[in-house]
Amino acid sequence: MAQQGTGRSRTAQTSTVADLARFFPEATPVRIPVQFTRTGNQLGSAQVQESTVIEFGTCREVLFACATPLEFADVLHLRNSDGSLDTEASVVAVQYLPGATIVAARFLNAVPNWIVKS
User: Fold this and answer.
1) pTM score, two decimals?
2) C-alpha pair distances (Å), 1 with each of 5, 7, 65, 99
3) What's the CA angle centered on 115, arms 47 and 29, to 5 degrees?
4) Percent of the chain predicted with pLDDT > 90
């Protein structure tokens, strides 16, 4: 007599930054360590600071994973170690995973010499 059951898939079920990058056709893989700061824009919310790595970028957006539970429209200050990237961006997409947040943030101003596409 056959019994029904469920089993785990052999493929990973978790989403990654690459999965979110599919929604940004111009996204290019990059590995840029940055530190971001989110200042509280609501009464009682504290400033949050975290180090992460930008994994994909377009001329207007950056995509990365972090431990901070960010929300749509949060404003982040992004800065790399040498200061060549020092700008603000607004969160435009978020995917929540256990222990991680996958984020896409759009620059609030043009960033010169960021990603050049031919």
Assistant:
1) 0.81
2) 13, 19, 47, 42
3) 80
4) 65
